């Protein structure tokens, strides 16, 4: 019987007959295996299983329980679909782009040596991009079906080269590559070094450098798309998230840290394309092994569907002839360092070192060195047909995320001193020899006498190449990348009346600023206009922050819903998971939580949905731990509120050195569009929140907020009068909380967060020595500092002198200043240079300790006693307090000052 007849006969069996047949078949296989194991031993069994695996893999069958498959393309030639495009035109377009990238970077470095840029990365990834551009990436006109594409950062010149052919950039723009401040060529815009939405807000959507940023962001963007759909904020769509990344990039923890999340949540809207050019900055990624095989094990183990695109079409005939598996076994023995040599040195090297057995030599009988050189360059990642087959399989795959591992050559086509050489990443200028070889290899019609001019090549707006790529982009919904902000503001945000109850204090009850935040958040979640847009994000500390009631109120998002009855079912704080849940409970991953924050905080631009993220985490594990991702959030104009909880080095009692934060506000200085506050009371927090919602979602400003909240309980007073002036001071960073009374030497006390209470106690202590102290709440030293440096600049450069706000606020309030903070002394010292009076700073420089708040504040010299004594010392320096009074105060206050300062202990 023929194979067709056998299949038909099997299908004709009844279910009962099939079951009996399969039972007999299974028994026969197992009996045969048992015989081999007993008679020939386990080694023979392993050999048979290997041979079975080889047979299966050659026929496109990949057992799910295998983490590694042979070093072959996942999709055999017979499973490749017909190519839907014009192969020759697309190859020409890719090569034109390679040429223009090389010219752009070389010209930039000829004009300004050391300006940098990368030639080799785009040369390796060009075809991987082009198949996407011509057949898969859906642009902004596709609406909710548009794709989000994370481009490999070091290949960004390729995006500019393509935009040049598309007519979006001019030659003058290319001439200004990496010259953003003073573009040397008139009529052109400066082009950023890498994808930076802050610098090119109409072009780039996602920053993907430093390496590792793209992958983790892509995962959480794909997840957030599902979140929006499951919660009914966005209609379901076929949109995909594509992320292009490097093989060496997988050494970054952010690249691999969230792979399990993507698999666990079944994100089949996510596709990674790994550009495996086998090289990193200094040399091979895995010279002594195979990085593609390593990555396959990693992704398969994490639950991803893996598609390998290793070999190009030139290998198909040899693989078909290799009936005995000799070539396959040689592939298995191949290491990347060896593979790199073949790409660098060509066919002669391949003949001598790769085809090094009688069986392999017979396989290539009659082949010339030139034909073997073609084999060395025939990598799957440069073969449009192989790439298309992989991409098509990826977009059609259901149930899990997909990774495509595509083998390429770094510096492909860029000449003998670049292609596959260890120096490829560092090459910024092509030599004359490289230029000539690149022109020949890429087929660029530039006369030899013009080569020294390093000319760009544009085939013309009416050329087949340009017409083709424009037609393809039109069919797929417009240009990519292109950043369109779909929500520009205008959300009906809560007004002052909504927050007014929080202006009235805690009614004599002791609460923390964290409790105040949770109460405001709970009310916001019920707000008719913004409630549905609130996205609480917690990395597994909700109970620590007193948020457990919110879990029962709005639920934790889970795409599977809740498949179990929680142990606390029936209680007011039951653990509730739901497909419509609003809270993103991330587990112990601050990086993942920040990637959530970015996805939610940029949905206004990508989808026109003004989601409002509230990320709350231990402040010590925020800006210090994930500062790079915060910087990326700033770059892409993320909006939202980042809450640093359990803040303050002396306020978080007991936790000790690794948990007590005294520096996050110093780190917050770095991002220019991050507004940073340390409120002491509920009304301060409410004012800041009201301002943030108005600015970010009412007016559409590209800022975000960092607010520290603490776990110390104390009575929160009502907002002082006049309230409008107080509100202005809260937002500008400083206001008078309590004036002094009586006559006597005057001093001004600044307090931040809970340390404001220590300043209030110091006010009372100072009164015992006849000193009139006024107490100020310093809510934001960053705001005071930015205002001061702006005032200084306006006077210096613009001839518009004005007083900094901090100086203006202090007018009429004489006396030296003592600024006490739970953070580094560097923070208040930011404003020292703008003040015309003695200024002493008390802060918490040094390592934290495990102890009570009282002990810690004594240790770091920031408690009421130290504030009062420091004020007296300043007044003594002005001759307003006697030495006798100062010594008596030291004795009264019980200060035992150590010779070694806290930061040296």
From TrEMBL:
Limits of the Transketolase N-terminal domain: 116-313
Reaction(s) this enzyme catalyzes, per UniProt: N(6)-[(R)-lipoyl]-L-lysyl-[protein] + pyruvate + H(+) = N(6)-[(R)-S(8)-acetyldihydrolipoyl]-L-lysyl-[protein] + CO2
Alphabetized UniProt keyword annotations: Magnesium, Metal-binding, Oxidoreductase, Pyruvate, Thiamine pyrophosphate
GO molecular function, one term: metal ion binding
Required cofactor names: thiamine diphosphate; Mg(2+)
Domain annotation Pyruvate dehydrogenase E1 component middle: ranges: 495-717
Domain of life of the native organism: Bacteria
Domain Transketolase-like C-terminal: 733-863
Amino acids binding Mg(2+): 247, 277, 279
InterPro entries, per the entry: PDC_E1_N (IPR035807), PDH/Transketolase (IPR051157), PDH_E1 (IPR004660), PDH_E1_M (IPR041621), THDP-binding (IPR029061), Transketo_C/PFOR_II (IPR009014), Transketolase-like_C_2 (IPR055152), Transketolase_N (IPR005474)
Top-level EC class as recorded in UniProt: oxidoreductase
NCBIfam families given in the database record: aceE
Function: Component of the pyruvate dehydrogenase (PDH) complex, that catalyzes the overall conversion of pyruvate to acetyl-CoA and CO(2).
Protein name per the record: Pyruvate dehydrogenase E1 component
């Amino acid at each position: 019987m023929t194979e067709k007849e056998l299949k038909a006969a099997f299908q004709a069996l009844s279910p009962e007959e099939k079951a009996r047949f399969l039972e007999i078949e299974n028994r026969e296989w197992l009996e045969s295996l048992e015989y081999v194991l007993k008679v020939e031993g386990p080694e023979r069994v392993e050999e048979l299983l290997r041979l079975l695996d080889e047979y299966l893999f050659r026929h496109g069958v990949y057992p799910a329980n295998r983490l590694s498959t042979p070093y072959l393309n996942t999709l055999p030639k017979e499973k490749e679909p017909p190519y839907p495009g014009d192969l020759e035109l697309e190859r020409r377009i890719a090569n034109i782009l390679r040429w223009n990238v090389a010219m752009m970077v070389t010209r930039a470095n000829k004009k300004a040596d050391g300006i940098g840029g990368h030639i080799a990365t785009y040369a390796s990834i060009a075809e991987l991009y082009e198949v996407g551009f011509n057949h898969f990436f859906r642009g902004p006109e596709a609406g909710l079906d548009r794709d989000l594409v994370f481009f490999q950062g070091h290949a960004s010149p390729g995006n500019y080269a393509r935009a040049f052919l598309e007519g979006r950039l001019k030659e003058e723009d290319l001439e200004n590559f990496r010259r953003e401040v003073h573009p040397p060529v008139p009529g052109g815009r400066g082009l950023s070094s890498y994808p930076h939405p802050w610098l090119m807000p109409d072009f780039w959507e996602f920053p993907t450098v430093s390496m590792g940023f793209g992958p983790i962001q892509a995962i959480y963007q794909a997840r957030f798309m599902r979140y929006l759909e499951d919660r009914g904020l966005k209609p379901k769509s076929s949109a995909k998230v594509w992320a292009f990344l490097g093989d060496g990039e997988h050494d970054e923890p952010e690249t691999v840290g969230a792979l399990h999340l993507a698999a666990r949540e079944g994100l089949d809207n996510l596709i990674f394309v790994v550009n495996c050019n086998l090289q990193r900055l200094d040399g091979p990624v895995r010279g002594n092994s195979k990085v593609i095989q390593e990555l396959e094990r990693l992704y398969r183990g994490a639950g991803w569907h893996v598609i390998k695109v290793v070999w190009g079409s030139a290998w198909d005939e040899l693989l078909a002839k290799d009936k005995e598996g000799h070539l396959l076994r040689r592939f298995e023995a191949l290491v990347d360092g060896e593979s790199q040599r073949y790409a660098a040195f060509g066919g002669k090297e391949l003949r001598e070192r790769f085809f090094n057995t009688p069986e392999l030599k017979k396989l290539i009988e009659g082949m010339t060195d030139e034909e073997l050189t073609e084999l060395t360059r025939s990598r799957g990642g440069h073969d449009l047909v192989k790439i298309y087959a992989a991409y098509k399989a990826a977009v059609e795959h259901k149930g899990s995320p997909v990774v495509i591992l595509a083998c390429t050559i770094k510096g492909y086509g860029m000449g003998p001193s670049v292609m596959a050489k260890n120096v490829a990443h560092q090459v910024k200028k092509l030599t004359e020899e490289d230029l000539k070889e690149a022109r020949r290899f890429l087929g660029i019609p530039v006369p030899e006498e013009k080569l020294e001019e390093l000319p760009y090549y544009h085939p013309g707006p009416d050329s087949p190449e340009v017409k083709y790529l424009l037609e393809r982009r039109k069919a797929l919904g417009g240009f990519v990348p292109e950043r369109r902000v779909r929500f520009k503001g205008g959300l009906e945000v809560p007004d002052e009346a909504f927050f007014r109850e929080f202006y009235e204090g805690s009614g004599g009850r002791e609460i923390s600023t964290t409790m105040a935040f949770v109460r405001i958040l709970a009310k916001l979640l019920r707000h008719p206009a913004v409630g549905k847009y609130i996205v609480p994000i917690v990395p597994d500390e909700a109970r620590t922050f007193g948020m457990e009631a919110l879990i029962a109120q709005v639920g934790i998002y889970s795409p599977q819903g809740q498949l179990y009855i929680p142990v606390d079912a029936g209680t007011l704080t039951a653990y509730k998971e739901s497909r419509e849940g609003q809270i993103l409970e991330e587990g112990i991953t601050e990086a993942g939580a920040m990637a959530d924050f970015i996805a939610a905080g940029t949905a206004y631009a990508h989808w026109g949905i003004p989601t409002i993220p509230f990320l709350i985490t231990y402040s010590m594990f925020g800006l210090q731990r994930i500062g790079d991702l915060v910087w990326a959030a700033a770059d892409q104009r993320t909006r939202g509120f980042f809450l640093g909880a359990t803040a303050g080095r002396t306020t978080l009692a007991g936790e000790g050195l690794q948990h007590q934060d005294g520096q996050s506000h110093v780190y917050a200085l770095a991002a220019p569009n991050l507004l940073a506050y340390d409120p002491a009371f509920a009304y301060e927090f409410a004012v800041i929140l009201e301002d943030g919602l108005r600015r970010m979602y009412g007016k559409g400003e590209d800022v975000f907020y960092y607010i520290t909240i603490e776990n110390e309980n104390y009575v929160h007073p009502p907002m002082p009068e006049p309230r409008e002036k107080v509100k202005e001071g809260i937002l500008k960073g400083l206001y008078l909380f309590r004036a002094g009374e009586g006559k006597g030497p005057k001093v001004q006390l600044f307090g931040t967060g809970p340390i404001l209470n220590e300043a209030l106690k110091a006010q009372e202590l100072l009164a015992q020595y006849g000193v009139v102290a006024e107490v100020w709440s310093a809510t934001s030293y960053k705001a005071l500092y930015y205002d001061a440096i702006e005032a200084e600049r306006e006077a210096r450069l613009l001839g518009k002198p004005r007083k900094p706000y901090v100086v203006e606020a202090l007018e009429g309030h004489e006396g030296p200043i003592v600024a006490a903070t739970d953070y580094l002394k560097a923070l208040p010292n930011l404003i020292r240079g703008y003040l015309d009076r003695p200024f002493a700073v008390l802060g918490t420089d040094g390592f934290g300790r495990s102890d009570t708040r009282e002990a810690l504040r004594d240790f770091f010299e920031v408690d009421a006693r130290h504030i009062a004594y420091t004020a007296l010392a300043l007044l003594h320096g002005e001759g307003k307090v006697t030495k006798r009074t100062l010594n008596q105060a030291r004795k009264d206050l019980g200060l035992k000052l150590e010779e070694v300062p806290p930061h040296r202990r």
